[in-house]
Amino acid sequence: MRTARERTGFTLLEVMVVAAVLGLMAAMAVPAWRNVQANNRLRDAAGDVADTLSLARARAIARGDNFVVYFNTGLNGGTDLCGNALVDANGDPAPILMLDDGPPGGANSNCCIDAGETVETLPGATGVQWGVDFAAVPAPGDADPAANFANGSTFTDPAGAVREWVAFRPDGIPVGFNDAAVPGSCTLGTTGTGAGAVYVNNDRRDIAIVMSPLGGIKVHSYERSGAAWTN
After folding, report:
1. Comparing C-alpha atoms, which of 226, 59, 213, 221 is closest to residue 140?
2. Cβ neighbours of 159 (radius 10 Å)
3. Domain assignments of the chain as residue spans, ordered by start
4. pLDDT of 81-90, one tens digit each?
5. Using an 8 Å Cβ cutoff, are 66 and 177 in contact?
6. To bridge 100 with a disulfide, which of 90, 118, 192, 221 should be the other Cys (CB 3.0-4.6 Å)?
7. In the prediction, which pLDDT does 20 show?
């Protein structure tokens, strides 16, 4: 007759079955968890873009200075319009750079990074790229006059050329600016020239950060199942 201890034990086969089930569950859970992490990093990166634009606008109003935001999408070779590298304090490439360009008409108010000017940068996010992978049209509210949304930036200068930058006047209005013929200077556009969007993706999802002509920010996610942007 089997003892109570023997009756409550597990056979080797049972242990192997449980181990196999746990292994299968782990194999299924790991990719799902990685997807969650990747999407969280993408949302955080999109939030960084939106927050930087909002912060630049708020500081321009509070300080009475022109503020410039550069997006290092590769369009301008990783530099500002004067050829200064968009890098952080360690000299590493910065995907986003915010510049306090001083009061309008100031000696160094030239849309470029000058000695003594306050610069803030944001680090890159693992697995996040500029542009889109799935969206076939721009996000709602993005006019995208140069049809460049797939590459990451739809901001333009006042002449309509694609750029990876935008400025905020002391009244908080975003405006585009030209790469002036005179080195070390720039020409700010009028109200309405600063609207545009930035697009980011993680090979699984596309997100757009759209800014209105008056500086309002809205974030949209592309839903692949419905082939449409969220509103």
Report:
1. 221
2. 12
3. 12-229
4. 889 999 999 9
5. no
6. 118
7. 75
Q: Parallel, antiparallel, or unpaired: how do β-strands 165-168 and 129-130 relate?
A: unpaired
Residue 117: φ, ψ to 5°? -85, 145
Say which CATH topology domain 12-229 has: minor pseudopilin epsh fold (3.55.40)
Q: Show Cβ contacts of residue 3 under 8 Å, excluding neighbours closer than 6 positions.
A: none
Over the stretch 137-157, which tens digit does the pLDDT of each residue have?
999 999 999 999 999 999 999
Query: What is the token pair recorded at 147?
Result: 């049809």
Kindly report the length of the chain.
Answer: 231
CA atoms within 13 A on the CB side of 45: 29
Q: For residue 177, which of 192, 193, 191 has the smallest C-alpha distance?
A: 193
The larger pLDDT score, comparing residue 178 to residue 1, is at 178
For residue 20 the two structure tokens come to 């196999």
Q: What is the CA radius of gyration of the chain?
A: 24
- Distances in Å between the Cα of 19 and the Cα atoms of 7, 25, 27, 184 are 21, 10, 12, 67
User: What burial class does residue 217 get, using C-beta atoms within 10 Å of its C-beta: 0-12 exposed, 13-18 middle, 19+ buried?
Assistant: middle
d(CA 190, CA 134): 33
Q: Tokens in use for 122?
A: 């944001």
- What is the reported pTM? 0.85
